[in-house]
Amino acid sequence: MSSHNVIDEQFDELVRELRAASPEAPPALRERVREIAARPPVQERRFRLTWVLAPAAAAAVAGAVVIGIVSSGGERPEQVATPEAGRTTLKQADTASAGAFGDPVAPGKRAQLYMADITLRVRDLSAKTQEALRITRGLGGYLRVVDYGEGTGRGNANLVLRVPIERVQQAIVRFSQLGTILDQQVKVRDVQPQLDKRFRRIAELRRTIPTLAGDALAAAQAELEALQTAQARERRQASFATVSLNLTTKEADTAVPAAPGRIERALERAGDVLTAELVAVVYAVVVAAPFILLGIALIAFARAQRRRTDRRLLGQP
Amino acid sequence: MAETNFASVAEEHLDAVYAFLLYLTGDRTVAEDLTGETFERALVRWRRFDPRRGTPKTWLCQLARSAALDHFRSESRRRRREDTYAFLDARSGGTEVFGNGLSPELEVALQSLSPGEREVIALRVICDLDGETAARVLGISPTACSTRLSRALQKLEEKVRDDVLA
User: Fold this and answer.
1) Each residue of A111-163: pLDDT tens digit?
2) What's the helix, strand, coil split of chain B in %, to 5?
3) Of B21, B125, B148, B163, which to mutate for an interface test with A (greatest number of A Cβ within 10 Å)?
4) Into how many domains does chain A fold?
5) Are A62 and A110 within one domain?
6) Across the interface, do B43 and A3 touch by the CB < 8 Å criterion?
7) Which domain holds residue A137?
8) pTM
């Protein structure tokens, strides 16, 4: 038994007398306490810091996730509009799937000049060059330019291919399967406004030519012929996409990172928002720190003061 | 179940709580009021009682002490004086306060002690709490509690002896 639990024997008689005369609660008090104990238990309401902090933290995380999802956009990769009107540039590299190359500005009914630039790393340059040509012909396209170096299966080959616009997506998918994509770019220029303008002028000339004579008639006919030629040429150009295919056996100087998926983008942005929230909290804590310390000091002082008061009330030194 | 437990705990420890508060305040009426208040508080906080942290008796004594100190503070503010008023009130009554069958000398000697001295006697002798538990209730170390008890009993014994000799 601890020495603190032993009462000095010299006080035995005193202790016995005190215990023998130990006061008992009067019956009225006993009854009152029984009544209290018979009451239904009361739910004590106490303020807990976690009641504030937990919802605040949950709201911060939920907000970050929502902002991340909303700002991550859809499945499509980001399009960057250049200052040049009617022109859209898409840049993306994806070694996994050519399908991810997407169809952000797919050639539809509008006349568009579609240009794709693909850089691939291949193992056998010669075989892959031949295969690219076969793919092009198979899709109804043709080779416009070829720059094929070394010819030993290693080095670089640059091919400029023309592929029917309606089959360009299929072509890009198949080209992308020839090797590892190091870079891909697509440029689409809408030429429909020019065609429309030219069409209106041709229609106007056709209406006015029957009313003309002499030099004016000759000039109008010459203009009409030139416009029809240009119109036909541009329609032909728009009916084929230009694919610049660069094949190389060399490692890329710097690998182009894979474009993140939507979930990755959402998580990344949610992380950014959370970081910003954390910075705001840290800032608030730093600003509030002097006041918090002052508050703690005041509480400590109040407690010490209270202990002193208690001692005085109990008649202790 | 909690309700039943509280009722049995209240029944079992009512005398100890009352005796402690009587010794602390030196006034039967105040002790009764504070006992009721202690059990009111206990009922509200019963769900927070953790048996692993101490016995029900210890917990009730802590609540009782807190209630008594609150009472002392409010009375102190009201009366604007710093002496141990309750003790003076009780002594001025001249009736038996601290128990049934105490010798008059011991009764007077107890009244002459300060509330702080009486509370340690109440916890260790009347409520029969061990040294560590009583120290925890008082918010002091077990050594300080032991010293305070010895001094209080010594003082009590001397007072009794003086009264008998007188």
Assistant:
1) 888 888 988 888 888 888 888 889 999 988 888 888 876 555 667 888 899 99
2) 80, 0, 20
3) B125
4) 2
5) no
6) no
7) 80-191+236-258
8) 0.52
